[in-house]
Specification:
mainly alpha, 3-stranded antiparallel β-sheet, elongated
């Protein structure tokens, strides 16, 4: 298991133990996992972002901390927020994060999540020119989310 996975697992466990909000010290985490603080920043920015359903607050300095809160909203609100947040273009990594968050929040089923990922994936969009794929992906994603059953 990679160090990033270990750090993310530790943070996720801390969130579960505390009911969805935890405060962490970047330096303490770096010492615990024997890594540089930038590795902690990387894990937080890639796995605990708003697209993944988290709010991250940070205060630097001697008494600084990182506060991570798991956002819990009603499935319909989560769905509409996601549709409104997509924009005109979206890359496949962002789609994967958004879909995982929707499935975790109960807004879509796991089966629907797999179908969306398949329909918006690079293989499905191969006939389109590479510079057009992110716009096409956004359009397909929005339509699939708006017409889900």
């Amino acid at each position: 298991m990679r160090i990033s996975d270990n750090i993310a697992g530790f943070i996720d466990a801390a969130l579960s133990e505390t009911g969805g909000t935890t405060e962490l010290q970047r330096a303490e985490l770096a010492n615990r996992f024997n890594c540089v603080p930038s590795q902690i920043n990387y894990v937080i920015s890639t796995r605990f972002s708003p697209e993944h359903g988290y709010i991250v607050e940070s205060r630097r300095g001697g008494g600084g901390f990182i506060r991570i809160t798991r956002v819990v909203v009603e499935p319909e609100i989560l769905l509409m927020h996601t549709v409104n947040a997509i924009g005109d273009k979206v890359d496949i990594n962002t789609v994967a994060a958004l879909i995982a968050n929707l499935a975790r929040g109960g807004a879509i089923s796991d089966q629907h999540a797999r179908l969306i990922l398949s329909a918006t994936g690079n293989n499905a969009l191969r006939p389109a020119r590479p510079e057009e794929r992110d716009a096409l992906r956004a359009s397909i994603l929005k339509q699939m989310l708006l017409t889900r059953q």
